[in-house]
Amino acid sequence: MKNKLSPETLAAQAMGFVDPETKGLTPPVHTSTTYIRDPDNQYRSGLIYSRDDNPTYKYVEDLLCELEGGADAMVLASGMAAATCVFMALSPGDHVVASKVMYWSLRNWLDQTARRWGIDVTFVNADQPDELRDAVIKDKTKLVWLETPANPMWSITDIAETATIAHAAGAQLAVDSTVATPVHTCPISFGADIVMHSATKYLNGHSDVIAGALVCARKDTFWDRMCQNRAQMGGVLGPFEATQLLRGMRTLFLRVRQSSQSALQIAQALASHNAISEVLYPGLPDFPGHEIAAKQMTDGFGGMLSIRLKNGEAAAIATAANVQLWHRATSLGGVESLLEHRGSIEGAGSPVPLDLLRLSTGIEDPQDLISDLNDALNRASDI
To answer: Which CATH superfamily is domain 252-382 in?
Structure first.
């Protein structure tokens, strides 16, 4: 075809894959861990050992790279494997600026392990440009890390402005775009150098695969170090997980759009509930950062929202205990709706208010989800 295909079409058809030998429409799973060397001792196939060279990876990597508008991509064993792969490409003494509100496991890793290995870490409110600008140090800051929308407060950071600040200091910008996905935001188009996904979440979307992914804006020395990290540190994705991930990505646009539409309906419905003090959702016009979200997110504002209860932590936990349709479970981005009291998970030192419940909206009927939440809120009020 002469016309450029849409991202929706590329995802649904796995980049138009047709097996050249069998004419099958589903990419094969390559389970071999090793590959034959040519008689003259060369590896003309480009494949040596499956820790770094399994061709099953390429199907999903090529698709994600195309969706994000990147130069290259790689999949890893988990979102944490992907994120730490980036930081491990730095050197002792390098300075990093990261958001205070971010995925809690990664924040803990930065605060503990990264510091122990000599990485200088400064946490800031990344949605405040002046604070971010004051934190970067020219020629010392090597990486700015942001998450937008940021879990679980869903604060929005201006990617383009942050890229300008980072690049002026000589730093690279990495964006955790797990919640936005390429359905809503392509950070590279706003100046990001690296995009990270916990592919466990929306990319896979079925709560049955642990995976991570990285995409680069260009192949440079920093990217080469990340590729070397995956090859040498062993954080690789198995071939079965890779093909499961690709299967999930073929319905990415359908699932994420439905989740986003439902999340907006739920946020609007709960905004006036007398048991709720605040609904945190970038799609609400009065949400701080809504204008920036509208500028850099297309076709919706994501499937994640949080609510804060007027009667505090006890009311939040009681509400979670009384849901019937929503599932009390961690993680996010699956087809089923999940609800979680994040303060219980993150513990001491977390910036998350104890009256907050995080909601991951699935693809169920939104009216069913709203009714279940209303019933749970009302029952909790009676306790």
So the answer is: Aspartate Aminotransferase, domain 1 (3.90.1150.10)
